[in-house]
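Technical note accompanying the year-one report. For the benefit of new consortium partners, we illustrate the data format agreed upon in the data management plan: each record pairs a sequence with a structure-token string. No post-processing was applied to the example shown here.
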Amino acid sequence: MSTAFFAGSFNPFTRGHASIVERALPLFDNIIIGIGVNAEKPGAAGRADAACRRIAALYAANPRVRVEVYSGLTVDAAKAFGANVLLRGVRSVADYEYERSLADLNRRLSGIETLLLFSLPELEYISSSAVRELASYGRDVSDMLP
């Protein structure tokens, strides 16, 4: 059985993230969306738990998608949850270079391969940090969220 681990802070979970999950579903038996917690950031655990509830509600009707909160190395969490592939999204050349290096490191650490899916062109401008910034200025970001 193939299980992908799609990890991130998902602060917030955007339409771009949702697109990666939807496009990966035909490729895997199961997808685990892993919300990473940086224990050194105040309030991170509470934000992760809230994100977990929101994302789980999006996929409540799909038993092949589950959402988990984790801390520590992503490859360790992926193995602990039974995943055999890391799933990552790529929006740009800069993202690609970063993700390629990370994939090489993760493979060396754990033997787990990484599958990169490129963003759909109409969604590549969406990033969690842009959504947070726009929202902080009172802008409507609802079209960037699932």
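Partners are asked to follow this layout when depositing records. The chain is about 40% helix and 25% strand.
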